[in-house]
Amino acid sequence: MDDKERFYRGIKRSQPSVITGEGRVSSALFKEERIDKDGKCGVSVTLEANREQSIVFEQFDVAFGKRLKGIVRLTQEDVKKAKAFIFPSPSLSNRYHAEIFQNEAKETLTNLQSLILADLCEMVCLKEDVPWT
Questions:
Q1: 39: which residues sit within 8 A by CB, 6+ positions away?
Q2: Nearest-CA neighbor of 10 among 112, 109, 96?
C-alpha cells in the first residue's frame, strides 16, 4: 500500500467526547474495538481508494446518520509511524472497510499506538451541534 493512501475514521457523538478541542481527538478514538470475521479486535477505518473526499463523507453520513460528529484522516505513513498495521476487511455494506491492528498477528492496538494515531490524525470534518435524540 502506498504511504500516501488515506484512511478515514468517523467520530460518533459520545459522552465524554473524544474531541479534545482545537480539532484534536483523544486516543480513545483509536481504542474502539470491532471484532472481525476472524475474531480479532481492530479499529475500523475506511479507505479513500482514489475516491473524492465528498463521496467518503457521504458514506459516513449514511452509516452514522444523526450520530456523526466528525471525521478524521490518517495516511498509511501515519500508521507506519505508530508501528501499526492496516488490513483491508471489506464488508457487504462497505467494500472500502479496513482495520488497524497492533501487528501482523492482528492484536489490539497498544495505548501508545492509540496515542500516536490520535496525534497524527487530521480532523477533516467537524459538526459542532450534533443533538442527542
A1: none
A2: 96
